Amino acid sequence: MGRSLLTNFILIFIVFSLLTGCQEEDLQTQPSVSSNSEKPSSDQAIEKRNNGHSDRKTLPLELKEDQFEFMIGWLNNETILYCENLNGAYVISSYHIYTGEKEEMYTSELPIIQAVLSPSKTKILIHTSPTIYEADVKIVSLQNDKLIFHDIIESSEISFTWNGYDESKIFAVAFYDDWSFSTYILNIEEQTRAETKVPYPFAIWQNSNSLLTLDWDHESPETTAPILSITNGESESVLNDRNFYFLYGWEGLFLAISLNKFDDSLADFNFYNEKLELIQTIQFPYLTEYSSWEIPRFNLVADDMFFIVAPKTSGEADNYDGGFDLIKIDLKDGSQDILIEDVANEPIQSSPDGNLILYGYQYEHVINVNNKNIERILIFN
């Protein structure tokens, strides 16, 4: 692998790690994916939920600092999942943020490296490592605690992208010490792992069968690239009118970030449906790092509610001191609401109804979107 390819690989891997489970950094084991299974049914239902959250006091989770491993995220609108070390065992537990009720849900004798909820939050992927060159992958049903998939994959590092259209499928990338990688489709129903041809180690699901990835030029590295759609190993270039530098997807929608054609101080956040139809474009300032762009913290809820920690102006990430705002965007009409000004540039993860946001490098705070209060949700004693 030549220097140019290695450089490109590292840049994309860093971007990818910001949003996919870097537990020491962002802790977003299922990056910014809020379940679409709890969509608001009406304006009255939304208002009812909003009022219910506004008047309730959260109870912080109190743990010993040396027993806390990482926060996994929202199990439902009022319950979070977290991983802790209890007497040498690694335990995934649920915690109700209003009642303080705890429940142990999964225990492993091996250290849990990743825990990734499915989009419907009915299953959880548990990644442990019996050796430094193996990933032990188990998928457990949260409805009956049944083990529904198990595989051991050779790797030094591994990432997973769940298919929101068909939860029986997961895209997995196994990385090796020499910076090479293999890509697989895990199929829970068929109990199989099939190697698939993806030219670069980052892809999102376009639908139940196809993946989207950026087609980076390995010979002449660029900072933007066209999009490839891959189905059963066959590739097709799509959206050929422009290039992009980042992709991220949910069920029914994906985000492709590009530079604005008319103002090079802005990035276009382009939202497309699975048919590759443009739904909405929103402009934000962006920060640069090395020869690429820093990807902001963001989250989508219920197809049309988008949260982002956005810089106020563009600039270099290392020297930037202009501040960040937490912004809520309605993707139906593009309207924006600055929820909190001058927030720290730290990870966010919304509850399925969009009323609460876990916030911080350890998700140690919770933000109430309706009254804009920030409270501590994780306390070390």
TrEMBL record:
Superkingdom of origin: Bacteria
Comp. bias intervals (Basic and acidic residues): 45-58
Start and end residues of each YqgU-like 6-bladed beta-propeller domain: 97-360
Endpoints of the signal sequence: none
One of the Pfam families matching this protein, by short name: YqgU
PROSITE patterns found in the cross-reference section: PROKAR_LIPOPROTEIN
Region described as Disordered: spans on this chain: 28-58
Protein name in UniProt: YqgU-like 6-bladed beta-propeller domain-containing protein
